[in-house]
Amino acid sequence: MLSRSTLSKAPQAVGRLGGAMSRTAAMQRAALLHTLKPRHQQASAVPESESSVAPSTSATTASLAQQALAPLDTFLRRHNGPRPSDVESMLQALGFKTLDEMISATVPSSIRLPSELSIPESSLAERELLAHLQVIAQKNKVFRSFIGTGYTDVVVPKVILRNILENPGWYTQYTPYQPEISQGRLESLLNYQTVVSDLTGLPAANASLLDEGTAAGEALVVCLNAAKKGRKTFFADENCHPQTLAVLRTRAEGFGAEIVTGDYRSFDFDTLEGRLAGALVSYPDTYGNIGEHKALADKVHALGGQLVVVADLMSLTVLQAPGEFGADIAIGNSQRFGVPLGYGGPHAAFFATTPANQRRIPGRIIGVSRDASGNRAYRLALQTREQHIRREKASSNICTAQALLANMAAMYAVYHGPEGVRAIADRIHRYTQVLAAAVAAAGHTVENTSYFDTLRVRVQDAEKVHASAVARQINLRRIDAQTVGVTLDETVGRADLEALVEVFGGDIAGIDALAAAAAPTVAESSAVPRSLVRQSAILTHPVFNRYHSETEMLRYITQLQNKDLSLANAMIPLGSCTMKLNATTELIPITWPEFSQIHPFAPKEQTQGYAHMIDDLERDLALITGMDATTVQPNSGAQGEYAGLRAIRAFQASQGQGHRNICLVPESAHGTNPASAVMAGLKVVIVKCDAKGNLDLADLEAKAAKHREALSAVMITYPSTFGVFEDGVVRAIEIVHAHGGQVYMDGANMNAQVGLTSPGHMGADVCHLNNHKTLAIPHGGGGPGVGPICVKAHLAPFLPGHPELVNADGSPKSSVGPVSAAPFGSAGVLPVTWSYIKLLGGPGMTSVSQVAILNANYMANRLRDHYSILFTNANGMCAHEFILDTRPFGKSAGVQAIDIAKRLQDYGFHPPTMSWPVPNTIMVEPTESESKEELDRFCDAMIAIREEIREIEEGKQPRENNILVNAPHTINVVSGETWDRPYARQRAAYPLPYLRERKFWPSVSRVDDTYGDLNLMCSCPPMENYQ
Ligand SMILES: Cc1ncc(COP(=O)(O)O)c(C=O)c1O
């Protein structure tokens, strides 16, 4: 083994962005590290002073040497906020001597892990981590990808890459539920909706979905809900992308819908009379043909169904909009608007529809409203209609979606503008024309009747063509033994074209002549049906016509960013959301080409790096959760719930228990739990909680007994959504098992569990993790999300499959269908979680849980004399979050939780979670990453607000016109010419001294929710509003 002294001579800096070390030097160092055992696995991991066994002399020397040469860039002390001396004083304030003592008073001993969590190859220092991961990344081969199938390579404008994707000011934002401090991303997401609605020709668009496959599933459900009762048949054209069809079929099962596939051109739709709810067709189709769908739309409408069109945003810049030929819904993936491939995700899907379907749209919708001063303000529209409110009546479980990626796509349109995106589309099409002609000249048959960017080519021997392509580091689509597919994109240059022509045995000398003969635009091309050339204008709004120079673009992005409070500004103490540090080191690898430029269907030989990382992750996540197997496929926590429940159902069916269809869900559960259960075809039965917020075990037992014959599962969140480690969890699990049910554990609160206990240890059968909470993937303003599920061995065969996940003989790896369009979901951000785990290791992650619990209890303790804390255990301890009861202030001062939340914005904080799980309360989760100073600053603000409430209670401030109900205060209001409020301007804006140093101004006054819902406007306001 090499010693650290050898290593310390190696160059230090690692990473493309740092750039100081040559690639070779970095590789050498990484290779050295690869042979090194991680620190915690080395013989001398425990300092001798703490070891009870007398060390041998050589062991002593080794240990001393290791300590002497240890790196300084260790991670845990950067990740955890409180310094060791702070931990000591915080423990003292709580009456404990050690963290262990505090944990013993918090976590029931019956569920504590018997031994320390151990993660292989972990506890690396930051530079070691990057070097180690670089070696793994190098196992991925970055080939030119012309596979298409819904994913293309892109040119990510660097100004967007650096200032959005790599910028914590954007990626650490939370979902914009607090519009006054979220106007930047709300505007950007509204731009996204405008792009989608402009290009699809359908006026109502949402602010992103998870991927194209799940968007097709969402469209199916909208059609089912809109159709006359009993209509459960949905037609899907066979020339949609295979993964889209596969996810659609999965989704249909839970709703009892029948998917009929065929070729829409020859299919006899009359056979579906009285049954048809809708039809799905791809435009262009998976092989590149651009069909005319007007007649199909008419036929589907005549039969009482809706037409769903899977569209491609780039081709829509030059092709007729689906809304113009009668589509009711358009869905698709916005990836090719400047979002990297990332081995399949994360990318934002889109969903646009007619006004008739407006209130059925799944996911989040940004709307335009006004603020208390009468100014225009953006907000999440129809918030009260959100899926979690609909609970068991929900037809979709979308919560976290892909906001960050939607922002990137929107900015791509802003940057290029209508002319720019058209020029890109026309250029792609010119290249495709030249390639089509060259391929035909080489003696092959281009089978397309029409095309934009994709060719289906009949050759004599497809294997030979693929071999020739691979030799040139090119991937083509494998269709069959005599057919290959090629999809071109905006990255294609002359060298690629020449290589492609050679792959098909063509003559590169002829390229110039073919290029000169190619139609310069789609509008003039014979490859596109004349009737389908776009006539309507696109992206006419000023926002798409103003910011085309880099300086202007940079300033626009920054201007929006400055309106939004992110972790770069202050703590975001959102209960159940775990807004922890998203460390820079963890984020750096996601833009390495070896991770970001890999097509999800690239051959296995080229994706060994991903395979290595995903294998590591699957094993490590199973260790963390005490389970036996993992899939990283689900794109969000809610998708994990759905995948987990489907695994349970498939297992039960395999045992002859397929009739089991009851899912017990506690009344305290997050709304996605019942929604996911319904989507998995289960009936929800609600279980009560007692006055202390614990699961009512008597009610659970009674309901489990009542439904004994049909009990499928229970869904438990632990620690509970009330923020307590319930003693009764093991008993609850026993009850459900005794009645034949399986136990699903919602892992949203895993940040309090890691290393202390685990779902598997407690007895659960399956759980999900929210990697975008517990495991450091940033929230991105509402996504990306990654919601892996971990299962016990008996459920492992029922994890979701995928058309691309096949055994050596071509048979599917799982009999259960996929829940995401890509085999490994949002694979492109998995390096974040991998890095988090490898940096911290088992002991580090255990420390994280301890400090998360310490921080919460420290705050609860400081606030206890000012607010009542709603739920704690018998020792007065909360878990990693706690609920402040703000309900009494309604009576005493006319103040509601929302007033406190808005006033907190004046103090420079993002408000905690509001009115969930208990109406009119606030739930605080500080996370381990916040320092004692930041916790104190927040507590000071809350205490100062309590005093402001007292002034109202004591009649010193009027109940209707006071500093709370008028909050937040914008700079315009505070610096306005007139001031007629019963408190000073200075108090409104600078209630505590620290604000003189770090004031964050809400950019609009309180937003009027009712007005926004009544006057729904979901794309950019008309131009006159900007003049
Ligand atoms: C307890 C709980 N379960 C499930 C979810 C859904 O997770 P996601 O938003 O990743 O879909 C959330 C989201 O906040 C949650 O708090």
Automatic annotation (TrEMBL):
GO CC list: glycine cleavage complex; mitochondrion
Origin species: Coemansia interrupta
Keywords from the named record: Mitochondrion, Oxidoreductase, Pyridoxal phosphate, Transit peptide
Role noted for this protein: The glycine cleavage system catalyzes the degradation of glycine.
Gene Ontology biological process terms in this record: glycine decarboxylation via glycine cleavage system
All residue ranges annotated as the Glycine dehydrogenase C-terminal domain in the record: 849-969
Taxonomy, superkingdom: Eukaryota
Bias kind Low complexity: ranges: 42-60
Known cofactor(s): pyridoxal 5'-phosphate
Quaternary structure and interacting proteins, as annotated: The glycine cleavage system is composed of four proteins: P, T, L and H.
Main location: mitochondrion
NCBIfam families named in the record: gcvP (TIGR00461), PRK04366.1 (NF003346)
Region (Disordered): 1-21, 38-60
N6-(pyridoxal phosphate)lysine modified-residue sites: K773
Known EC number: 1.4.4.2
Gene Ontology molecular function terms on file: glycine binding; glycine dehydrogenase (decarboxylating) activity; pyridoxal phosphate binding
Domain Glycine cleavage system P-protein N-terminal stretches: 77-504, 527-801
Similarity comment: Belongs to the GcvP family.
Name of this chain's protein: Glycine cleavage system P protein
Stored Pfam families: GcvP2_C (PF21478), GDC-P (PF02347)
Cellular compartments annotated: Mitochondrion
Catalytic activity entry: N(6)-[(R)-lipoyl]-L-lysyl-[glycine-cleavage complex H protein] + glycine + H(+) = N(6)-[(R)-S(8)-aminomethyldihydrolipoyl]-L-lysyl-[glycine-cleavage complex H protein] + CO2
